[in-house]
Amino acid sequence: MKKQLFPIAALAGATGLIALSFSFRTPLVGANEHCHTPVAEPPHGCVFKTVYEGEGLDSGFVLNAPEAVLASEQRGLQWLVKAQAQDGGYGAGTHARQDITDPHAVSTDPATTAMVAMAIMRMGSTLDQGAYSAQLAKATEYLLKQVEASPKGAVNITQLQGTQIQVKLGANIDVALTAQYLSNLVAKLGDQHPQRLRAMRALNTCVDMIQRSQNSDGSVKGDGWAGVLQSSFAASALESAKSQGATVDDEALKLARDYQKSNFDASSGSVATERAAGITLYAVSGSTRNSAAEARQLNEIVVKAKKEGRIAKDAPMNVKTLEEAGVDRGEAERLNAAYQVYESAKVQAQADNVISGFGNNGGEEFLSFLQTGESLVIAKDQGWKNWYGQTTGRLVSIQNQDGSWNGHHCITSPVFCTATSLLILSINNDIEHLLAQGAVKYR
Fold first, then answer.
1. Which is nearest to 259 in space by CA: 290, 282, 281, 238?
2. Is 33 helix (H, G, I), strand (E, B) or coil?
3. How far is the C-alpha of 254 from the C-alpha of 329, rounded, in Å?
4. Are the CB atoms for 350 and 14 separated by under 8 Å?
5. What's the rounded Cα separation, in Å, for the pair 139 and 85?
6. What angle do CA 176, 181, 182 make, to 5 degrees?
7. Residue 24 — φ and ψ, nearest 5°?
8. Residues forming a β-bridge with 66
9. Is 284 exposed, middle or buried (0-12, 13-18, 19+ CB in 10 A)?
10. Closest CA to 258 of 224, 223, 219, 207
11. How far is 46 from 401, CA to CA, in rounded Å?
12. What residues contact 124, with CB distance under 8 A and at least 6 apart?
């Protein structure tokens, strides 16, 4: 497999994430910060507690959002909810007619609808409460009907072809993103909620489709221009679905994760970009995202063993240390491989020359930024705070006057790009949910 080489040593000093002149300006930092919340007047003091963290989430892991980010979120969300179609869905339009940017002049599609629904939910609304609960309920109904109407044995939930998202990410991206949304939805529905059983059934249907579409190497059938992103989101969907109790085949999840990790060689820093449109960013963000949970598992095992005195305080993160901590050889090798990929890939994913992606911003760049940020949170990596400050500053600086964002190549849809940007800006709202994904083995 042909690979592009980017030595890790040359990138070690690049983690400062200096803003790129091609599209970003100075990041927002400092004054007038509040806890991240979708309301205009945020409350004083934020409390984050989670059953997965034992004594509660360390307050040092939470980062407040500047006023400018909160204002940017509100402008974006207000623009986005107005883009909803009569059937409850949202559309990105076709690859053949990227010149059509009016959200009401394109057909709705599940992939875009799922991204918008995730953004609305992350911004504070649920099916039962919040400023945009009605819009979220309509989008959810649209997605559930798409899943329920799918023929038996299908590998996607729509008959649409040639959408911007499908052509650039993959023909089966709709089911992957819908599965991700349904996992997020189920996490917020109580056991007795009238929509829980229906949502869970739909989630399991999506999981089955993803697993049927899996190639022998762990990737997903129907590659688009940057098919590695479709496969990455499918892997993430299986991971999050499993964390919510969906019927996920462990071998399918392992295969999906292994495929993403195989795109990055931690020892040399080389990146396989053949299925990433030749763009390093797309590949390394997927490698980071799909090694994050295992990297955190290794770290927690080692930290616990050090506290208990079973291994030396200065023991390195490697196979031998894991074995001394009581992990069998095979498992130790698996976790160590994931940890090394994560630690190296996250550096490249945040390096200036990699962040440039295709050279300007398309939806693929926004998706890659989102994957990197969620990876850092899932891994319980304190480096997420640096990523957040830099990335939110960049996004705020390129927001359109009407509150939307749009891409300048490939995925140009303002609806899709706005939804993805909001998911990035409001990631602080989902700290508990994302941490739970990485802590699923410690419930």
1. 290
2. strand
3. 17
4. yes
5. 9
6. 95
7. -120, 150
8. 33
9. buried
10. 219
11. 31
12. 37, 38, 39, 130, 131, 429
Dihedral sign, CA of 5, 379, 294, 237?
A: negative
pLDDT at 169: 87
pLDDT score of 333 more than 70:
yes
Those residues with Cβ within 8 angstroms of residue 250's Cβ, 6 or more apart along the chain or in another chain: none
**Tell me, which fold does domain 78-442 have in CATH?**
Glycosyltransferase (1.50.10)
Of 374, 348, 358, 362, give the one whose Cα is nearest residue 431.
374
Helix (H) or strand (E) holding 332: helix 329-349
The model's pTM is 0.83
Helix (H, G, I), strand (E, B) or coil at 165: helix
What is the C-alpha separation between 400 and 10, in angstroms, rounded? Answer: 35
Q: Delimit the domains of the chain by residue range.
A: 78-442
**Backbone torsions φ then ψ of 28, nearest 5 degrees:** -90, 130
Kindly report, residue by residue over 383-423, the tens digit of the pLDDT. 999 889 888 988 999 999 999 998 766 678 999 999 999 99
Length of the chain: 443
Report how far residue 169's alpha carbon sits from residue 204's, in angstroms, rounded to the nearest whole number: 22
Computed on alpha carbons and rounded to an integer, the radius of gyration of the chain in Å comes to: 20
Cα angle 295, 300, 306; round to 5: 130
Q: Tally the C-alpha atoms within 13 A of residue 41's C-alpha that lie toward its C-beta.
A: 0
Q: Can you tell me the distance from the alpha carbon of 333 to that of 325, in angstroms, rounded to the nearest whole number?
A: 13
Q: Which amino acid type is present at position 383? A: G
Please give the Cα distance from 127 to 190 (Å, whole number): 11
Q: How many Å apart are CA 374 and CA 431, to the nearest integer?
A: 9
Terminal-residue alpha carbon distance, the chain? 40
Range of 45-59, 189-203, 383-397 with top mean pLDDT: 189-203
Question: What 3-state class would DSSP assign to 412?
Answer: coil
The pLDDT value recorded for residue 418 is: 96
3-state secondary structure 105-146: HCCCCHHHHHHHHHHHHHCCCCCCCCCCHHHHHHHHHHHHHH
Rounded distance between C-alpha atoms, residue 218 and residue 252, angstroms = 7
Q: What is the mean pLDDT of residues 241-262?
A: 91
- Determine the Cα–Cα distance for residues 210 and 119; give it in Å rounded to an integer: 22
The pLDDT of residue 247 is 97
Q: How far apart are the C-alpha atoms of 41 and 110, rounded to whole Å?
A: 33
